[in-house]
Design goal:
By secondary structure, this protein is an alpha+beta fold. The protein is 22% helix and 34% strand. The protein is built from ten helices and 21 strands. The strands form five sheets. Strands 5-6-3-2-1-4-7 form a seven-stranded mixed beta sheet. Strands 8-9-10-12-11 form a five-stranded mixed beta barrel. Strands 16, 17, 20 and 21 form a four-stranded antiparallel beta sheet that branches. Strand 11 and strand 12 (221-227) form a beta hairpin.
């Protein structure tokens, strides 16, 4: 029986032994890497496994064996594994600080098991002192817990850095590091803030985070921990009902009640919000079919699919470079002249600028509605200004015209 069976712990694995080991594990984290030749297939599956002594190790299943094990491999599942190989973890950046990794191969057998003595997430929290003193293996991941004391405004202009949130978090000893969230981790944080806007302190955990060091403008080296490996490996928690968070929260409250001056006070959850979070929290969602029930002007959010761009309408207009309003076109002695309805703009001098005005049809499960994409939103989608598109369109027309003029004899002969 499984209860009477002797299982090998990860720290007992010996590469000198040729006899197979039997393991009892929990899948802490699992992600796949796509095949470059076929993006619809997985090239390999990577996992972080934990044994009942809460040792952790990385494991791999290569493409040719995925079909044999995929039905067993799910996060938080507990398994018994027999006849696996011990491979070299040759990655320059390891998820787990271990020179070896396990490989589930053609002779490996996997079965589900119900009993497992170990925590669900198997955190291995590292102290902020160890991070600050670099008392860690830098080419591996860390688990950290702390309370948020400050959130930095994101003034980035490029698209990549816009999906980023930087905050300062501290521990119960007054040590602080910087936490950076990227990609869907920012979306998770935003969703939480919207749903729990009036909550108190923000206690966060980042599991499998990557550590980097940067020298600030003051000449001091600062510690940054961010989610690692794109959006696949790290796990982010905020105020979850976990033992580690509840224990930390109780200790923090005790220190705050004791007026411990070494502890920086945490900020409330609402201070984590961005401008987008505020907009989503304060604006009502509507189905397209319910828009007709709105009787007074208001801002709303709808979720739908763009089905078409209306073909019978102009996709841009000539607007004022100062106030963006549509310009009045007059025929003067020197040709076309433009006039803005705003007197102040006419005094300053009007420069005509093409601006987007794209009519679209949007559909959800309740109906269809006509909407207009103006300059700011259209530029975000097209990555170009209206003038740039007009210029490129004119360039194509000139090239086509030139081609036909140069080759007109061919068409006459034909």
């Amino acid at each position: 029986s499984v209860e009477d069976q002797k299982f090998t712990m990860f720290n007992e694995i010996d590469v000198l032994k040729t006899s197979p080991s039997t393991l009892k594990v929990r899948v802490l984290r699992m992600w796949s890497i796509k095949d470059n030749k076929n993006v619809n297939e997985d090239f390999l599956i990577e996992m972080v496994l934990m044994d009942e002594n809460e040792n952790r190790i990385q494991a791999t299943v290569y493409k040719q064996n995925i079909y044999r094990f995929k039905r067993f491999l799910k996060e938080s599942s507990t398994l018994t594994i027999v006849n696996l190989s011990v491979g070299l973890n040759g990655s320059n950046y390891r998820v787990i600080d271990c020179p070896n990794k396990l490989v589930l191969g053609p002779n490996t057998h996997v079965n589900s098991c119900q009993e497992f003595d170990g925590r669900l997430f198997g955190f291995k929290m590292i102290s902020f002192e160890s991070l600050i003193n670099k008392d860690i293996f830098l080419k591996s991941t860390v688990d950290i817990i702390g309370h948020v004391v400050h959130v930095f405004k994101n003034n980035a202009s490029n698209v990549k850095d816009k999906n980023k949130r930087t905050m300062e978090i501290c521990d119960l000893r007054g040590n602080c590091v910087y936490l950076i969230l990227w990609d869907h981790y920012v979306s998770e944080l935003s969703k939480y803030v919207i749903e729990h806007f009036d909550e108190g302190h923000a206690i966060v955990i980042l599991q499998f985070g990557r550590v980097k060091y940067y020298t600030g403008s003051d000449g001091k080296e600062k510690v940054y921990v961010s989610n690692s490996f794109g959006s696949n490996v790290s796990r982010f928690f905020i105020n979850d009902y976990l033992f580690e968070i509840e224990e930390y929260k109780n200790s923090l409250v005790d220190l705050l009640n004791a007026n411990d001056v070494s502890i920086r006070k945490p900020i409330p959850v609402k201070m984590l919000s961005s401008v987008d979070d505020e907009f989503l929290r304060a604006t009502d969602f509507f189905n397209i079919g319910d828009i007709c029930t709105i009787i007074s002007p208001k801002s709303i959010i709808i979720l739908g699919t763009i089905k078409a761009i209306c073909p019978d309408t102009e996709w841009y207009y000539i607007g004022c470079n100062t106030c963006s309003r549509k310009l009045m076109e007059n025929n003067g002695e020197g040709g076309k002249e433009y006039e803005c309805k705003t007197v102040r703009c006419n005094v300053l001098g009007v420069i005509p600028t093409p601006r987007f005005k794209i009519k679209i049809r949007v559909q959800d499960s309740t109906g269809v509605v006509s909407l207009t994409l103006f300059d700011r939103d259209a530029k975000m989608l097209t990555k170009k200004t209206a003038k740039e598109l007009i210029d490129s369109q004119n360039e194509v027309c000139l090239q086509v015209k030139y081609f036909f003029n140069c080759n007109s004899h061919l068409y006459k002969r034909w």
